[in-house]
Amino acid sequence: MEKKSEIIVKDIPMNRLVPTNTKKFSLNDLDSIRMSMEAIEMLEPLSVCKDGEKYLVVGGNKRYQVLLEDGHESAPCVLVPRPDTYTPSYQVIDVSPTERTKMVNKVLETVDKNRVNAAIGKISRKPVLDDKFIVGLSQDAIRAFKDGSLSKHALQELKNVTPKRQAEILRTLAQTKTNKTYNLDTIKTQILATLPTQRVERATRKRKTPWEKNEERMDAITKRLEQVQQQSDLLSSMYHTYVSDITKQLIYIRGFMEDDNIRQYVEMQHPEVFKTFCEIMRREC
Asked: What's the CA gap between 180 and 149, in Å, rounded?
């Protein structure tokens, strides 16, 4: 299965956007979209694919046309990897229910709920969990999700432990909670500290357990430390060899320079070498 890439949203100048649907839209189509955008602003960005210095509009050509006619200088866009990600008959953004709820909640901070309902239909500000997903979750975890304290990703992690352990983790987190949402990294840490008797072993698993992932990370860290130690030992050995060689050379040069005849010969015939010998021995000659 192809892994979904991370969604990237950015404002792109209108002069760099190229519509892929060049047919002439009716005034009714554009007016209805314009009224919706005026009521609740732009709820979903355009879907675009980079094409050299330009961006192909593969989703939201009508919204693009409205923005263009209304004189907007830029448009919020979601980058997609290739133009065939969307078909002409279904050019929509792949946004999860949780993300869509966040978008709606953001709009409702400044726009009346009735105006939003009139523009896009009845909305729900709370993400919904299906019956299959809630299997293995404690009521405390489900309530925390509905209150906005837990993300769906956090719930998925909590399903690795028993409902009783889930409640214990949430009580522990509540004592140190500093904002509305529980920290996912803290939840993972608590899960790793769970005793084997409170872990959930599933009959069929498509992913590794947190403890398996942690063991792999620890193995990787141990392997890296061993590599660093080996490099350190090698460098230490090279250093000792180098010091030993230098010491031998100094002994040889000192004996060499103590012979007056050799010393005078070197000084006269090879003054640069003589100077170097003196510098090595830190002597004034």
From this structure: 6
- Distance in angstroms (rounded) separating the CA atoms of residues 250 and 223: 41
> φ and ψ at 267, to 5 degrees?
-60, -35
Per-residue DSSP letter, 89: T
Indicate the DSSP class of residue 252.
Answer: H
* Cβ neighbour number for residue 13 with a 10 Å cutoff: 11
Rounded to whole angstroms, the Cα distance separating 283 from 273 reads: 14
Whole-Å CA distances, 137 to 132, 161, 183, 200? 11, 9, 18, 11
Q: pTM of the prediction?
A: 0.40
Element (H, E) at 247: helix 210-258
- Among 183, 152, 148, 151, smallest CA distance to 169 is for 183
Could you tell me if 67 and 30 are in contact, meaning their C-beta atoms sit under 8 angstroms apart?
no
Taking alpha carbons only, the member of 105, 90, 15 closest to residue 53 is: 15
3-state secondary structure of 18: strand
How far the first Cα of the chain sits from its last, in Å, is: 78
Q: Per-residue confidence of the chain (285 residues) as pLDDT tens digits?
A: 444 556 678 889 999 999 887 777 777 667 777 777 776 667 678 889 888 889 999 888 888 988 988 888 998 888 887 765 444 434 444 445 555 566 666 666 666 666 666 555 555 555 567 778 888 899 999 888 888 888 888 888 898 999 999 999 998 888 876 666 788 888 888 999 899 999 987 655 567 888 888 888 888 888 888 888 998 888 888 888 888 887 787 787 777 777 888 888 888 888 888 888 777 776 544
